[in-house]
Here is the input.
Amino acid sequence: MTLYEKIKTIYPELTDGDFGFGSIRLQNDSDGKGDYIALWNHPTLAQPTQEQLDGISS
Amino acid sequence: MALINTTTTGVLGSTFFGDGTGPLTVQQNGVTLGVYGNIPAFSANRVTTQSFSNSTFTKVQYDVKRFDTNSNYDSTTNYRFTPTVAGYYQINGNVSFAGASAGYVQVAIYKNGGQHISGSAVPNNTSVGGMATASSVIYLNGTTDYVEFYAWQNSGGALGLQTAAGNNTFSGALMKAE
Here is the structure.
């Protein structure tokens, strides 16, 4: 399961407009370290913790 | 930086001869008027596919150089341009995603690891794919500043690139030294 899918599982109310140039930026620097949350400025939803993300089964 | 060691005045002006070390910089009262010689300019391609996760800005790995006049583009590890001459650079990039029946593609030029310029955002489609570009004039300090190119897509799953020559390019050149 990708990081995006995990976040959508935690917050199904998020839309595609929240990502990209929106308030949430997922990023991959092509350095082998994978996807990560580079920016989280959502006005009402808190950035999920690593524990929350790890708790979602893939 | 080259040193001027000889000046020959001719009918049309002066000819300056450097000592053969690096670009020749001409200054007046401490202000750089121009840099001549092997000034930084590069162009690189991506001609094999690269996978982009859904809704995730991913650095494009432009790994085939067309030219790199001053050996300032890293095409093997960090895929970034770090010029060694301070000044204002024209930076351009484009990507062509494989076709998808849904979603958009977006791109951005990053400077020093953060988004600097947002590029175009266009809908993808199964007929021609999704092609996006970004370009800007960016100041780079000639020592630590670097630029990279990131792309984003939200087709609903991972998506690759169209790999024909010229479909995915990253380029830049010095416009004015400082």
Remarks:
- The mean pLDDT of chain A is 94.
- The interface with chain B takes residues 2-5, 16, 19-21, 25-31, 35, 38 of chain A (CB under 8 Å).
- Helices of chain A lie at 3-10, 50-54.
- Strands of chain A lie at 24-28, 36-40.
